[in-house]
């Protein structure tokens, strides 16, 4: 629960015949929060966003926006606006006309309308392109026009349906920073739908990870990455090395486990954890394993040999076979120290911190 919810989603389900697009979803989103709905295709995130916007009607449950039930309100009477994946820019209108299109139904006088359009264009740094035709805009400029057209209506909630998916990698990363800066400046609630975990981690105050119409975890980017509640969440958000460990003791908050190569460790017990045959799934992120060079020593280390490697510019992913483990370990190491020069077949020592090991529910 959040202190001041702008959006309250209460036991919302959406059925299409026997298919459950949303299955008893409950969620609070705070006023002024940048919130992301993250998950693979078909997980229900866009259906949930469309339900908030009023373009889809839940089979059951309630959605409240700023304290008022929105279930029976049409989209144009909700204090929300939406930026679609394809931007939906009108090709026959220039930038100013596109941005001001929605204002026509408010019947403002001409001076007020010009001022609001000008303010919206200034917010997205397009004041100099007001007279430019839609077909003369780049992808990034079209995205800004769509944002300005939504913001000019002064919504309490801005809904974003994968708005950066059509941009190239460099522009996408630039727009992530711009969107986050814009959200802080205008101070309204942003709800973003994305399947890109790095985009969600970079932009959000909190993230809801969804699978199969249900919410698997809601947390801050740091919490959800470092302490995923389930193997499914951990596997979706970046790489994770998984292994089975024997539980030697258990309390309300901790698990003591015996691992094959990582020793006996005590780690935090995740919410909802249930042991299976006295075993727990343990994970460690690839970047939490560090190559030990030459005669360097570490309190905790494992040894193996490199079976493959993948070069990614600033980092190299090493695939390391460790005797006793069911699967090789994935290791991410920066190339400052020469990880890209380690040959396949070379012996290798890896250091780790026991705190980097996390337990997850299956």
Structure description:
The chain has 362 residues and is α+β, with helices and mostly antiparallel strands. The chain has 2 domains: 5-226, P-loop containing nucleotide triphosphate hydrolases (Rossmann fold, 3-Layer(aba) Sandwich); 239-360, RNA polymerase II/Efflux pump adaptor protein, barrel-sandwich hybrid domain (OB fold (Dihydrolipoamide Acetyltransferase, E2P), Beta Barrel), CATH 2.40.50.100. The chain is built from 8 helices and 20 strands. The strands form 4 sheets. The protein has a 6-stranded mixed β-sheet with strand order 6-7-8-3-9-10, with helices on both faces. Strands 13-12-11-14-20 form a 5-stranded antiparallel β-sheet, with no helix packed on it. A hairpin with a 2-residue loop joins strand 4 and strand 5 (68-69). Helix 3 (110-123) crosses helix 4. The longest helix has 18 residues, at 169-186. It is globular.
